[in-house]
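# nightly structure sweep
# worker-07 picked up a monomer target from the shared queue
# config: single-sequence mode, recycle default, output format = structure tokens
# input follows
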Amino acid sequence: MSNIGVWVNAEPGVRRKILNAGKQLMMMEVHFEANAEGYKHSHPHEQMTYCMRGSFEFEVDGEKRVLHAGDTLCIPGHAEHGCRALVAGILLDSFTPLREDLLNAEITP
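# output follows
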């Protein structure tokens, strides 16, 4: 099963859609309501995030950084990270290798 092109509710106030996936790289759009949080987690994948709209406070391995529209952040594999939308916003995330866990996750209506 592939979840490409399907909007999925993640955490409260956060929804995401995998835009496309190649053999080793995938891209995902993530929408946040104001003050919504992407809970802290880690994964072995390297992640690049681009702030398309809004502003976000990220924490990566205990270090905090604020991103505004047009800013990027590289998150190394295995780094514990999470973010909070300071205002409503949109992130564009890329992962390598593929996040098979997200591509093949069971979607509940």
